[in-house]
Amino acid sequence: MSEETANNTEAAELPPFILEQGKRFSQSIMWKLTRDFYEQRGISAWDSGIVPSYVTSNPFIAHAYAQVVWQYVRDCLSDRASCRIDPSQPIYIVELAAGHARFSYLFLKKFLSIKNSSSLKHLDIRFVMTDFTETNVKSWDRQKLFQEYVGQGVLHLGLFDLECDDYIRLYPSGQLLSQESIKNPLIILANYIFDSLLQDFFRFEGGKVSECLVTTRHSEPLGDQPVNPEVMSNFHLDWEMNPITPDGYYGDPAIEQVLSGYQTRLSDTTLVFPVGAMRTIRRLSRISGNRLLILSSDKGYTHEDELFYINGQYVQFHGALSTMSNYHAMGQLVRSLGGHYLATNQRQMSLKTVAYIIGGSAEQFADTMTTFREHMDVFGPYDFYTLLNSVRTSAPNLPLEGVMELMRLSKYDPQVFFDYEKTILDSAHSLSETQRVELIMSLEQTWTNFYPLGRDLPFELGRVYLSLKRPRDALRYNQLSMDMFGEHPVTFCNMGICHYQAEDTANAIICFEKSLALNPDYGLPKAWLARIVAEQHRHSEHR
Q1: How confident is the model at residue 2 (pLDDT cuts 50, 70, 90)?
Q2: 47 in a domain, yes or no?
Q3: Which of 1, 280, 315, 340 is surrounded by the most beta carbons within 10 Å?
Q4: Quick check: is 48 in a domain?
Q5: What is the enclosing helix (H) or strand (E) of 190?
Q6: What is the CATH number of the domain that holds 526?
Q7: Is the domain of 313 the same as that of 428?
Q8: Dihedral angle computed from the Cα positions of residues 259, 265, 270 and 273, in that order, rounded to the nearest 10 degrees
Q9: How far, in Å, CA of 299 to CA of 348, rounded?
Q10: Which of these three, 245, 275, 305, is where a domain ends?
Q11: Residue 390: inside a domain
Q12: Is residue 294 domain-shared with residue 354, that is, in the same domain?
């Protein structure tokens, strides 16, 4: 809500109850409520769709990240590297706030595919999924798709509070990853997290800077009892300006230097200032021994020319709180620490990708920087996302040939399959043998990218394989559907049809009966049972 909007709101329209008054935004109760939201909801925050995630959790972005990370590892192994990897020690890739873990799964698969096919497959590279809440860590521990990687020692789970921790505590062993124990450069992946860390707002005008203090109102008294985080969607925010001087504001000269720089260069603008993210970067730099790569994607600002003439404060509630990510400010901090800042060139705000490198010269990381430009900027994750949305809107009836090309471009994204499943089903009966082979290869590749969050992909693949007259493949996917999503009368019915197509009448009858046991009113298995009885009767008459 902008300052102008808040000031023009009629007093009679304002919610009557003040929750907090004249607070720095970074000290608002809304940040505690945001932590409470993720603590309480756990994985369901994403499974329900309340918190958006697809744009940073698809095979395309996972592939792009894997390419950049792999090149960074290679650069740290080169003879010219001052920021050297010790091959005898583990190399840690840490994902911050892994949340629903779909990106974790996709990145791990893509990265291991590159590593294990290279001459450097002997390197001990360990991927660590972290979150501040044990609720999410325990859910990952139960996820069957991760168990193989945990058993191999390439995947570890950990607790890490970005707001205060100076170490990562591995779960369940309790082992600490810290400045003392980490012997190699540290790689950090941080998608859609910096927008949910502590932020302040400042107004720059005429060479002066003012803090934006927030007063939070609600229609009902909230009292002293624990507050349901989802009440935030009904908060009314009022803003007031209070002149300040940057020196001594945060008690951190490096962060205050960034704020002072904006004071001299910006005018007539209201700016989000990522104090929480900047403190996190400082801690991560210390943990890594000042040898650090951070890759991050989020909505936000990456270039200083985007920071002029912003009229208000952008605050969004989707169960939790988020703001814009001021990647530019974080980049200024990284540069003050002797590091390097890479950013995509797009000026739109929907998704930006950045890399922060601390330790080593620009020459050492020339290939990493080139790889970043090729995979993040020339045609990067946001370009793919925009293209996919455009094609989905303008060509809902894309021919199968176009669907196949889109699947390849997406690195076999299940979402593309869902978008064009009808086209695939409608085309299945009239494919040439070559087309059938290519489609089946694409379907199997798509399956390897599936993470059980949201729609039931194996069930839908079973439907396609039934249409392709491949009942045993259809059975395999229907069984996977029940393993992942539970028994369902439609799934049992489809399995009955699969058995029937495979000329296994006995198991077909069993499946149709199981379908009816779950839903006695379901007409389709009744019809199939009647058909089988009739066919058996005719067969007996001809004997």
Answers
A1: very low
A2: no
A3: 280
A4: no
A5: strand 186-191
A6: 1.25.40.10
A7: no
A8: -30
A9: 9
A10: 275
A11: no
A12: yes
Residue 435 and residue 519 in one domain? yes
DSSP state of 116: H
Report the residue count for the chain.
543
Residues 98 and 175 in one domain: yes
Q: Compute the CA torsion angle 482, 55, 275, 243 (nearest 10 deg).
A: -130
Q: What is the pLDDT of residue 46?
A: 61
Span 75-109, pLDDT tens digits: 999 887 788 899 999 999 999 999 999 999 999 99
CA separation for the pair 60, 410 (Å, rounded): 5
Query: Which residue type is seen at 147?
Result: Q
Q: Are 252 and 337 in contact (CB under 8 A)?
A: no
Q: How far is CA 22 from CA 18, 214, 216, in A?
A: 11, 5, 9
- Total domains in the chain come to 3
Torsion of CA 115, 118, 123, 124, to 10 degrees: 20
Enter the tokens of residue 266.
């910006």
Question: How sure is the predictor about 261, in pLDDT bands with cuts at 50, 70 and 90?
Answer: very high
DSSP string, 254-296: HHHHHHHHHHHH--SEEEEE-HHHHHHHHHHHHHTTS-EEEEE
Q: Are residues 207 and 259 in the same domain?
A: yes
CATH number of the structural domain spanning residue 333: 3.40.50.150
Q: Is residue 3 predicted with pLDDT exceeding 50?
A: no
Q: For 117-132, write each residue's pLDDT tens digit.
A: 999 999 999 999 999 9
Range of the domain at 239: 3-40+198-275
Structure tokens of 307?
Answer: 């920071």
Strand, helix or coil for residue 189: strand
| Measured torsion, CA atoms of residues 525, 526, 528, 529, in degrees rounded to the nearest 10 | 110
Q: How many Å separate Cα 2 from the centre of its chain? A: 28
Q: d(Cα 58, Cα 407) in Å, to the nearest integer?
A: 12
Q: Mean pLDDT over all residues of the chain? A: 92
User: What is the distance between the alpha carbons of residues 457 and 177, in angstroms, rounded to a whole number?
Assistant: 37
Q: Looking at residue 350, what is its pLDDT?
A: 80
pLDDT band of residue 218 (cuts 50, 70, 90) is confident
Please check whether residue 103 lies inside any domain of the structure. Answer: yes
Is the distance from CB of 398 to CB of 423 less than 8 angstroms? Answer: yes
Q: Say if residue 251 is in the same domain as residue 343.
A: no
Domain boundary at 217, 250, 275, which? 275
For 331-366, how does the pLDDT look when each residue is reduced to its tens digit (9 = 90+)? Answer: 999 999 999 999 999 877 689 999 999 999 999 999
pTM metric for this prediction: 0.92
Judgement on whether residues 358 and 414 belong to the same structural domain of the protein? no
282-317 confidence digits (pLDDT tens): 999 999 999 999 999 999 999 999 999 998 888 888
